[in-house]
Amino acid sequence: MNNYLLALLRIYFIVIFLTTLSVATLPFWQQFSFLALPKYILLFLPRWWLLSALLLLLFFWRCLTKPQRLLVPVLIFVSLNYLDFQLPNFAKPISQNGKNIKIVTANMGEGSKIYNLKLLIKYYQPDVLLLQEISSTYLQDVFNSYLMSECVSGLCIASNIPFKQIKVLDRKMFGGWGNFAAIYQLESNEGHINLANVHFDTPRHALLAFIKAKGMSLFSMDFDENRKIEASLVNSFMSSLNNVVVAGDFNMPVDENIYQDNFSWLTNAIDEYGTGVNNTKYINWKGYSLFGLRIDHILYSDDICVNEVIVLESLGGDHRPIMATLRIVN
What we know:
10 helices
């Protein structure tokens, strides 16, 4: 390879190295408000691009220096972590005490069909159903099959376990509209569970502002602060309770700084029990599910044990439901 191509390869490697370093440090970007917009771009881009760019280096393996060759496996490991690839956890704890409680959370927006939801309920028979982006108008038949149910501004719960509402959090305090969390206490025979059904603000608006190039920096910073407020309020309330489960559409991946700051004290069911790529949100194009990301979660505290978790098939929309089977640890 001539000197010109070698120089290009070195530049390419440096760019890939710096990009991978940026991706690895995403959870720490909250210290710099001017990085809000590039943070969202890196978080919500289709994540296969980084691994693809790294694999291209393998075609030029012989031309890489020894230090570069030593760095490539590390960079690939970081890219797999960025891709949100979960290795199987053979040491995962499984509780045999108490009764299983099966919880399903599903965002019903963007074309999800009630008929598909009914099939899910019939086949999996979840004890507790948490829904986002849906009105009670469409759920009467679903509610009829459950002991109790409630909807508060797009956040719905249906349960065969008695519950009472503890608190509803809305966006009026910072000039927004709609609820972003509904918190309940479920009273099972094994004890109570403090359960939050959440739907945090979507980053779609900030990304569209970037695409359209209209006041994007200011908008993304204000938007970022509002998301921090939403997450911190849920964290502040739930962290004072025991037997905690927080589930729903977080609109944030696990490597976002807002998630790390507010929810790292909880165990993520898919992180603990998932294998491979478990995306819950897809970009649908002409009936095909393309680029995906994991932004829906089921989280639980140390006094809860989850025995199984699975990402289910789409109900027709752009999100996929998550189902987890949990028990209270006595």
